[in-house]
Amino acid sequence: MSNPILKITMVGPSRVGKTSLLAAMYKELERELSELGATFVPDARTQPVITQRRTELQTLGSGHNLDVSNIVSIQGTQDKREYDFILSVKLENSRTEKLEVRFIDMPGGWYKGNQRADTELAESNVSIWVVDATALMEQPEEETDIGRYHTIINDPETIYNAYQRAFEDKHTDHLIVMCLVRAESYVREDRQYEMYKRLEKSYVPLLRQLKRQTPTLNTVEACYVETVGSVIFQTFRKTKDVLLPYATFRKIQNKTYSPSGCAKPLRSVIAYALEQSLVAKIIEVNKTVKRIDIAIENVKAADTLWNNFWGIWGFETDLTKWCNIHNKLAIKHDELVNIGEGLQHVLEEIMRNKQPSDYFIFNL
């Protein structure tokens, strides 16, 4: 059996921090999974890119300069990038079960109607919809209580339209995880619930429309992360070089780079991946078993002698063995049980670490 691939699309407008989130969150989940006898590591092509982005974040979050405005200077994605990770789970029989996890990061501008973006989103199993918490929370409008720059920075209508195009006329069990990034200031002020309520107010009408179009759409979860940890929001700035206003941050004295909560969106993704992997293996085995049953029925129908003595002389057992050999079964039932137990163990531990207080479930 080839290793299944879980495709995850990082969704969001330009410069919202999609790649930075990926760089921050994988390391935290890697530590968590290692305690469960599993590993989550980038492949040789992904490793240097993710390491560089993480180093940039660490430098910004650990610098001595209190003005960390340069946090916005980390360049966004200019073309589609794929980041591949391998999730490996050690089983009791010394086998290792592997699942390839592929993150797809596209330029935010593609979501305005690029067919490549629509295709990638339609073909992915999961998407992480990244939302800038500062734009949602700061300088709220009196009428809506939503940040004045939320619409132009997070551009929810454009992202919704991309989902609508991608899922049109499709039955999908796609999982959406909404992730509030740059949430340091609001966690520090204990305003997490307020973030969720504003997120709900802004996005639920769009998500309900999407649910009506695609009834099989999975539950939408939301969480927040502190991408750097050692900074707090300072102000919004506008320059001639950057068309959109952007948030600047102030370094907290005596605090170094300390991202927090970054494993939360990946916990949801990996739990979903493990569930899908188990289902895929069961389906694949069942298809193989079905082929054996068909082969047996064909022999019974074609061979009068075998048909007359079927079940009397035990030919069914021998024929089943023959079909197993010649169909080259890639996995046996006892192996499936072993793989299932191994993956199930990691899945249960991840779900145990998913504290209900860390997530907000949208009522669609």
What does this structure look like?
This protein is an alpha/beta fold and 364 residues long. It has 2 domains: 5-277 and 353-361, Rossmann fold (3-Layer(aba) Sandwich); 280-346, no CATH class. Helices cover 47% and strands 18% of the residues. It has 12 helices and 10 strands. Strands 2-3-4-1-5-6-7-10 form an 8-stranded mixed β-sheet, with helices on both faces. A two-stranded antiparallel sheet has the order 8-9. Helix 3 (115-123) packs across helix 6 (156-167), helix 9 packs across helix 11 (315-326) and helix 9 packs antiparallel against helix 12 (333-353). The longest helix is centred in the last third of the chain and has 40 residues, at 263-302. It starts with a strand and ends with a strand. Residues 65-75, 303-319 and 325-333 have low confidence and may be disordered.
